[in-house]
Design brief:
single chain, alpha/beta, 4-stranded mixed beta sheet, 14 helices, 32% helix, elongated, binds uridine-diphosphate-N-acetylglucosamine
């Protein structure tokens, strides 16, 4: 199995091009199932999760062409008549549950394997089911599958008791083809929700309020083919900017959307970095300085993203002072802590709070990636650790970062896949 070997100690310098957002492209590819003509998606990152989604769409009968050079997908959903998302695919990628809404809306039936638990917590799907029931579907959970049926979905009121990105996305997609108007309350407000809504509108949907806590969807009879370009990945961009700050370097991330990264940039400034935005370019400069520890509390957007928590924890490990990290979204998202401690970090955990006391230096060691963003934090720690750090189980990383070692090498890092 491939591993990533990093020799720490180089300050990163230069420019890095940011790819399309993983968390936007996955629902958008699923949304193509709602259309009755070809859908072209641009700025698609070349990631393992994207390939898994393409496999799932093919499994359902859609024709999928993937142009990796142009980062483009062409999907013809017309031949898609299947309605079963099998365990083998859902197991490897929880986001497969995002076909539930589109399949129900388009074919009146969906059988989607339960995703099961994963490293960062139990991650149930009750809110997805609640949304489909509110639109008139009969839903049963049996033999490890969510089985849902309906003649035609009808608009209704969906009020989420807690904010869920995925459940909001399923609700949006299903409601787009329902008869009548749907009001979604306590909707997730993430930029990826807005991007999905923009894509649906480009296909002919009637949606208002995406990005706010209340979304109104007036169902339409059909969605046509169309084109959409995926939003830049705010988490990938944030990861490279934290890498710049940690290594005492200067990095410009290009092709970004700073308006989607407000809390990340605020925390970088608080850590002492100079952060400058110029159109779609964000530069972070930390040359000649050591970061100051920051306190983080994760929350649904516009709060601080849980997907950036592990990276900031890595930065706190070598920062000046003591920083606390409160994880409020997922119950078990501190899997990286033990691995960071193997590199010499000083971290105490109490419940969902980690207290990190910065040390002068980390020292390289073999470590094991446990989930996607945890892997990123280990790579970041490896970039500043003295000597060699060998990160095992990097397949987690390939689910969400396109060419991370090539991009980091381009900034001067000593990193290779071995
Ligand atoms: C999405 C992102 C993920 C990010 C997360 C939170 C994608 C593909 N993934 O995941 O990277 O970390 O948002 O920003 O976009 N919950 C329930 N019942 C449900 C659904 C969720 O209790 O039916 C809980 C979860 O266990 C969690 C919280 O709600 O505690 C938020 O999860 P959710 O927003 O749904 O995350 P995902 O959509 O799975």
């Amino acid at each position: 199995m491939k591993k990533i070997l990093i020799t720490g100690g180089t300050a990163l310098e230069g420019e890095v091009a940011i790819s399309g957002a993983k968390n936007a492209v996955l629902p958008i590819l699923c949304a193509a199932l709602l259309a009755d003509g070809p859908v072209e998606i641009a700025n698609v990152p070349n990631l393992q999760d994207v390939l898994t989604t393409a496999r799932l769409l093919r499994e359902l009968g859609a024709e999928v062409e993937h142009d990796t050079v142009a980062s483009r997908f062409l999907i013809n959903p017309c031949p898609a008549s299947g309605h079963v998302a099998p365990y083998e695919l859902v197991r490897t990628m929880r986001a497969s549950v995002l076909v539930l809404g589109p399949l129900l809306a388009r074919h009146g039936a969906a059988e989607v394997s339960l995703p099961g638990g994963c490293a960062i917590g139990s991650r149930p799907v009750d809110l997805h089911i609640h949304a489909m029931q509110a639109l008139g579907a009969q839903v049963e959970v049996e033999h490890g599958f969510i089985r849902a049926r309906v003649d035609r979905l009808r608009g209704g009121r969906i009020e989420f008791p807690t904010v869920s990105v995925g459940a909001t996305e399923n609700a949006l997609m299903a409601a787009s083809l329902a008869a009548g108007t749907t009001v979604i309350d306590n909707a997730a407000r993430e930029p990826e929700i807005v991007d999905l809504a923009d894509c649906l509108v480009a296909l002919g949907a009637d949606i208002e309020g995406a990005g706010s806590g209340r979304i109104v969807v007036r169902g339409v009879e059909r969605l046509a083919g169309g084109t959409h370009a995926v939003l830049p990945d705010r988490i990938e961009a944030g990861t490279f900017l934290v890498a710049a700050a940690m290594t005492g370097g200067r990095v410009t991330a290009t092709g970004t959307r700073a308006d989607t990264m407000v809390t990340t940039l605020e925390k970088l400034s608080e850590a002492g970095a100079e952060a400058e935005v110029d159109g779609d370019r964000i530069t972070v400069d930390m040359r000649g300085r050591r970061p100051r520890a920051v306190d983080i509390v994760t929350a649904p957007h516009p709060g601080f993203p849980t997907d950036m928590q592990a990276q900031f924890m890595a930065m706190n490990c070598i920062a000046e002072g003591v920083g606390t990290i409160d994880e409020r979204i997922f119950e078990n998202r501190f899997m990286h802590v033990n691995e960071l401690m193997r590199l010499g970090a000083c971290i105490d955990i109490e419940g969902n709070r980690a207290t990190v006391t910065g040390v002068e230096a980390l020292t390289g060691a073999p470590v094991m990636a446990t989930d996607l963003r945890a892997s990123a934090s280990l790579i970041l720690a490896g970039l500043v650790a003295e000597g060699e750090t060998l990160v095992d189980r990097v397949y987690h990383l390939d689910r969400g970062y396109e060419n991370i070692e090539a991009k980091l090498s381009g900034l001067g890092a000593q990193i290779a896949r071995v």
